[in-house]
Design brief:
The protein is α/β, with parallel strands linked by helices. The protein folds into three domains: about 5-115, Rossmann fold; about 135-360, Alpha-Beta Horseshoe (pyruvate-formate lyase- activating enzyme), CATH 3.80.30.20; about 360-415, Nucleic acid-binding proteins (OB fold (Dihydrolipoamide Acetyltransferase, E2P), Beta Barrel), CATH 2.40.50.140. About 30% of the residues lie in helices and about 20% in strands. The chain is built from 13 helices and 19 strands. It has helices at about 10-25, 50-65, 75, 100-105, 150-155, 165-175, 200-205, 220-225, 230-235, 255-260, 265-280, 300-310, 340-360; strands spanning about 5-10, 30, 40-45, 65-70, 90, 110-115, 135, 140, 160, 180-185, 215, 245, 285-290, 315-320, 365-375, 380, 385-390, 400-410, 410-415. It has a six-stranded parallel sheet, with helices on both faces. A five-stranded mixed β-barrel has the order 15-16-17-19-18. Strands 7-10-11 form a three-stranded parallel sheet, sandwiched between helices. Helix 1 (about 10-25) links the parallel strand 1 and strand 2 (about 30). The longest helix is centred in the C-terminal third of the chain and has 20 residues, at about 340-360. The radius of gyration is 22 Å and the shape is globular. The N and C termini lie far apart (about 50 Å).
């Protein structure tokens, strides 16, 4: 048996896949190590969403001569890439083959498991990176065909996992001490549309489970929210669901949205955002914005910022447009040299905007769950999923504590323990 180091790039779905592969490897007798230099073999779980993450992954392949197995979206989306041919691979639908691939690699073989199969994804062994957080993939793939996105080339079309299997994993994790659940996929809003059910129905079933826990819903595209809006607004009222929703808009311009092949308009996004804010005043609304999409004008870029202000968006993931290989957007005439300055401008604006919005929390008192250890402090989340930083010499990890907000920063609140 060998010592294995797992390195993960990308989203919560990738993190969940790594936790499952770790569980399967440990179950088969391998030892998992925290440092690369201690390992006999390095398992790299790759991400293809952004150019930067893929380049960092490819640099890892050249950086060290350590024995490697590669997993995730890069080999699945681009299996014929000549840079990958000398490595064993595990595809996103082949997690249960990871022990076979690792053992074969240790024996000097190159094994490639990239079949697109529908496999049982929940209720597999896992080793959680954070013992108090369980990341549960609820479906794989999506129904969209965005011109800028390469993820569908790896994750494929929508495949939802049965509600009862998800509930079973949920109950087991709760018994194991988990207090926070992240429901994740490429588009949680599409959940169940291939099985005659929906995200709201899944949430209703999960919140029937008794316990002191919180559920965070992952990225949900606007068109699917629009089709189930009233049911989602109702289930979001449940006290066990974080008052946080991530709805990626990508652009505030209808022309650019059409070029992106997004399936909604700016006006529909605004309608959804205002409906959520009216129903849940303390909601934290997050979104994604791409700067410098092909042919985006300065006026259209400003429309994106105007949307942030109008919808009172509190979390924005800002990305510079990169032409991902084999996507339709890569064949469009590029906005050369405009993406970076627009990204920096938007990031600077948002930093000030976020600090301004956070002022509403000043003096707030309430309970938070400490779910993260920072460099010199503890980090928790309130029910609106806003990070709260606490300085304390006590071991607070996994505990619920009462705090008062004494100061605010652009992306977090500074709290003091209340005795």
């Amino acid at each position: 048996m060998a010592k294995i180091f797992i390195k993960t790039y990308g989203c919560a779905h990738n993190q969940a896949d790594s936790e499952t592969m770790a569980g399967l490897l440990k179950q088969s007798g391998h030892t998992l190590v925290e440092e690369e230099q201690d390992a006999d073999l390095m398992l790299i779980n790759s991400c293809t969403v952004k150019d930067r993450s893929e380049k960092r992954f490819l640099n890892d392949l050249k950086r060290t001569d350590k024995l490697k197995v590669i997993a995730g979206c890069v080999p699945q989306a681009d299996p014929k890439n000549p840079l990958l041919q000398e490595f064993s691979t595990v595809g996103v639908a082949n997690l249960e083959s990871v022990t076979e691939v690792v053992q074969g690699t240790l024996n000097g073989q190159i094994i490639r498991k990239l079949e697109r199969i529908i496999s049982p994804r929940v209720n597999l062994p896992k080793i959680r990176k954070n013992p108090f957080i369980d990341i549960i993939p609820i479906n794989s793939g999506c129904l969209g065909s965005c011109t800028f996105c390469k993820t569908k080339q790896s994750r494929g079309s929508l495949a939802s996992y049965p509600i009862q299997e998800i509930v079973t994993q949920f109950r087991l994790a709760l018994r194991e001490g988990v207090q926070e659940f992240w429901l994740t996929s490429e588009d949680t809003g599409a959940y169940g549309l291939d099985q005659g059910t929906s995200l709201s129905q899944l949430l209703k079933e999960l919140t029937k489970v008794q316990g002191n826990y919180r559920i965070r819903i992952g990225m949900t595209n606007p068109e699917h929210i629009l089709n189930d809006l009233e049911n989602l607004l109702a289930v979001f009222q449940h006290p066990n669901i974080f008052k946080f929703i991530h709805i990626p808009v990508q652009s505030g311009s209808n022309r650019i949205l059409k070029l992106m092949n997004r399936e909604y308009t700016k006006e529909q996004f605004i309608y959804i955002a205002k409906a959520f804010k009216k129903a849940i005043p303390n909601l934290t609304l997050g979104t994604d914005l791409i700067c410098g999409f092909p042919s985006e004008t300065q006026e259209e870029f400003e429309e994106s910022w105007a949307l942030v202000e109008e919808c009172q968006i509190k979390v924005v993931n800002i990305s510079k447009f990169y032409p991902r290989p084999n996507t339709r957007a890569a064949r469009m005439k590029q906005n050369t040299n405009l993406g970076k300055p627009r990204t920096l401008l938007l990031a600077n604006r948002f930093r000030k905007w976020s600090e301004k919005l956070n002022q509403e929390w000043l003096g707030w008192k309430g309970e938070i769950l400490i779910d993260e250890k920072g460099k010199d402090a503890w980090i928790g989340r309130n029910d609106s999923y806003v990070p709260v930083v606490i300085e304390s010499k006590k071991d607070l990890f996994g505990k619920r504590v009462k705090v008062e907000i004494k100061a605010v920063k652009p992306f977090c609140l500074m709290g003091k323990l209340q005795e």
